[in-house]
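Changelog-linked ticket: 6-O-phosphono-beta-D-fructofuranose example.
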Amino acid sequence: MIRKIGVLTSGGDAPGMNAAIRAVVRAAISNDLEVYGIYDGYRGMYEGKIERLHRKSVSERINRGGTFLGTARLPEFKYREIREVAIENLQEYGIDALVCIGGDGTYRGALALDEMNIKCIGLPGTIDNDIPGTDYTIGFDTALTTIVDAVDKLRDTSSSHRRCSIIEVMGRNCGALAIWSGIAVGAEVVVCSETGYHEDEIVDKICEAARSKRHAIVLVAEKVTDVNKLAKIITDRTPFDARATILGHIQRGGCPTPRDRVLASIMGVKAVEELIKGNSGCCICEVNNELVAIPIEQALTMKRDQVSEKYRAFKELW
Ligand code: F6P
């Protein structure tokens, strides 16, 4: 039976992480468990940055972006010696279980701890929506809203000047942010790893748009191509003058949307329930509007190609 649980956020921050921490803290206390915040992710676990949290510690947090526990990336956590030190620190506080909030790197850390007999549950916190086991990750909806808001503004000026706006969005190796926002803004072209980069096709599409519209919008997922070079190609080969905008880290900040707050809150409660049931090595996923706990390994490796499916619809919409 567990008595004390720890909660941490790790990897890139995501709006809604505070709501998830709040839910874990409140659900733990409601079930007579002590709860501890681990600052700066696995790095803080290794450095012993741990503090008891109370109901009040998470007041006024639900609407705030970022993560008040702080976050970090610690690639060295893959080494057993590093994890052994981290586990000793947990033992000093008597922490017997953890909720780890983050993306796939965070999940791999949780899995490695589970194999060393620390009970762990993962919560999907990343703007990228790149964890195959869940339909949505905490932070995706807010980042999408930020992108759509920015592109709507770019469209105003693009249209005034008869230009093509090329917008680079985040997503690491996943095109979810690019394709979802492409659909939401009615873009002419989306380029991401799932669609591939086909220069002639892009140019043809923009030329076609130029025949009937005052602007064109191209959404590009980071790492697929250089958006400034693409702007030059479009300026040289189409009637539009093009401008590139890299949205960058603005996509990771801001107040979480109601959807992210709700998702984070119900997932946080479910994580505590799973720990109380004695489960470990699992993560919480939203599948067809229902929360389920599945093994982390399965969540990271299962095949679910939501991006290509959305891209098929995108192509029908233009
Ligand atoms: O995983 C979230 C994310 O924002 C990715 O979309 C992006 O590739 C990466 O993190 C950026 O990381 P950093 O903030 O360390 O530059």
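Closing comment: Example verified and attached. The first strand starts at residue 4 and ends at 9. The chain has a mean pLDDT of 96.
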